[in-house]
Amino acid sequence: MADIKEINEKIQRESSFVDLLNLEMEKVIVGQKYMVERLLVGLLANGHILLEGVPGLAKTLAIKTLASTIDASFNRIQFTPDLLPADLIGTMIYNQKKEEFTVRRGPIFANFILADEINRAPAKVQSALLEAMQERQVTISEVTYPLPEPFLVLATQNPIEQEGTYVLPEAQVDRFMLKVVIHYPQKSDEQKIVQQNLASEFPRPNHVLKPADILKARDAVKMVYMDEKIEKYILDIVFATRFPKEYRMDKYSSMISYGGSPRASISLAFAAKAYAFIKRRGYVIPEDVRAICHDVLRHRIGLTYEAEAENISTEHIITEILNTIEVP
Length: 328
Prior knowledge:
It is a single chain. The relative contact order is 0.16. The protein is globular and about 70 Å long. It is of the alpha/beta class and about 325 residues long. The chain is about 45% helix and about 15% strand.
């Protein structure tokens, strides 16, 4: 227990910036604490985030504000059907004076990338983004270039309008650590949003961190203690998405076409550690796993036609799994 106490004290020191970061975010983002918290989890766990919500819920503003508080480079890329891989990663340009080809780097070379309406771009662009997300590098004309650290892709998609969109392949969706579904703000929060936008000057966040501070915090997140019982709990949750019969959930075996991959287990463990870090704790408790579970698994479970016919969603299945599996 002495070791855990030592880790706990260290994590409390290392996570002191979290409250400061939240204060700066709250200056600009009103009433979306859930989204802001998930952005921090993704940032600290080195995982990309897929944000889903109707237009106007401050998805772009939240990402831009987070980049401002960290004094990091930020690029917004609007995904459209005519976008080419070169528009994303860059290309070779012929220099007439030097009589040689030089590399012109694309907007992907930044710490924070906002891929706006990601499902509007065709497969070639998605595959270029996939390499950047997974390998943290891009290849331009046979030469590989590393991307800056920290590197975080925050993609948005609009769940309403499906005309002119491409369904993201499972392999790419699985690369996102979290899929965060954002809802409308409360009436009192929306009143504050209106007042904020009508004011003579819109609030601006201050730079409170450097990119190097985030890399240091990520090392601290890895130090957060996770007991073997919690590891087994995470594995039970993920295995229940694959083999529901083994967990007394026979009803759902015909409703799940595929469950979470090993990447789901890794992401859930990492996200739980990051969540504990944000709560300024040096150890993971089952509530950390449960709090982040829907965001990690909702895009990793495939549903059959039978589930759709019965109006069963992945949210419902995850809730049932959490209610069925014994908490350590």
